[in-house]
């Protein structure tokens, strides 16, 4: 069976950007991109206006696993099925409906989109089997430009350099510590550690996870900085993993986020019931039953 990611060089980074992004996410770099997008969450938590709104919904405090699963599923539906597929449109519709329920600044929305573009590229530069090629970076950027347009985000940059410039300026101006930052980062870190370790071992896993975060992010979220020695060892181990991956066969079957079994959705999920507000009529009726 052919390696699906080998098709990428023959595809257009503009016309076929969705297909390339899907191949990158489900075949070429599936585990790495998922970890990078987890780090992207923490970058949005470093902005008080974003973290304060998220804490006010109380979803992270009361149902952190559901909030994480719903976010991951709503992002993955358009990626894995196509932005203009029925499921892709339904997921983007849910995202837009939820965002429309709150007053969210355009710059905050654009910054979150920037993290989706930039963090996977940066992660693969540091820890991936190989970095994204220029062709893949262009397609990855174009996919998110298309997604952002469907979400009604204003001022979307025209290229990767524009995303990098916007994010750098935004972080200089808006990264600062706030209690809501620390609360969200702490809740999410414990949730993610729980995916891999029993709670009694979190104290060992926590410094390792923090070693993957940069100093401005740690300062803004109030997370403790690991030692320089530990940071070097973690990065060395991740680069060793990358060398090992280069020797292994490439993935031939997709790794689909939307197909994963989740404790909160033992019988599967409906896109209309993901997220917070506004509720569907059916969901509201069940809640009141």
Automatic annotation (TrEMBL):
InterPro entries this protein is in? MPAB
Protein name in UniProt: ER-bound oxygenase mpaB/mpaB'/Rubber oxygenase catalytic domain-containing protein
UniProt organism field: Limimaricola variabilis
């Amino acid at each position: 069976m052919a390696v699906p990611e080998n098709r990428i060089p023959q595809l257009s980074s503009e016309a076929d950007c969705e297909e390339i992004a899907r191949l990158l996410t489900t075949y070429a770099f599936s585990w790495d991109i998922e970890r990078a997008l987890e780090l992207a969450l923490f970058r949005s938590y470093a902005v008080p206006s974003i973290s304060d709104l998220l804490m006010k919904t109380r979803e992270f405090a009361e149902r952190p696993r559901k909030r994480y699963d719903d976010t991951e599923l709503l992002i993955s539906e358009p990626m894995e099925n196509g932005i203009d597929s029925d499921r892709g449109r339904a997921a983007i519709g849910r995202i837009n409906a939820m965002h429309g329920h709150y007053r969210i600044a355009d710059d905050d929305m654009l910054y979150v989109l920037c993290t989706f573009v930039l963090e996977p590229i940066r992660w693969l530069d540091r820890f991936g089997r190989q970095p994204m090629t220029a062709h893949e970076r262009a397609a990855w950027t174009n996919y998110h430009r298309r997604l952002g347009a469907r979400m009604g985000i204003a001022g979307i940059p025209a290229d990767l350099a524009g995303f990098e410039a916007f994010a750098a300026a935004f972080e200089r101006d808006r990264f600062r510590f706030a209690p809501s930052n620390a609360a969200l980062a702490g809740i999410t870190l414990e949730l993610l550690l729980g995916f891999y370790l029993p709670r009694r071992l979190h104290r060992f896993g926590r410094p390792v996870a923090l070693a993957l975060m940069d100093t401005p992010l740690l300062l803004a979220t109030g997370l403790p900085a690991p030692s320089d020695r530990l940071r070097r060892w973690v990065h060395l181990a991740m680069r060793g993993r990358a060398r090992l991956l280069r020797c292994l066969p490439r993935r031939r079957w997709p790794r689909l986020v939307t197909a994963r079994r989740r404790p909160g959705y033992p019988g599967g999920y409906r896109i209309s019931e993901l997220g917070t507000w506004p509720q569907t009529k059916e969901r509201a009726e069940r809640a009141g039953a």
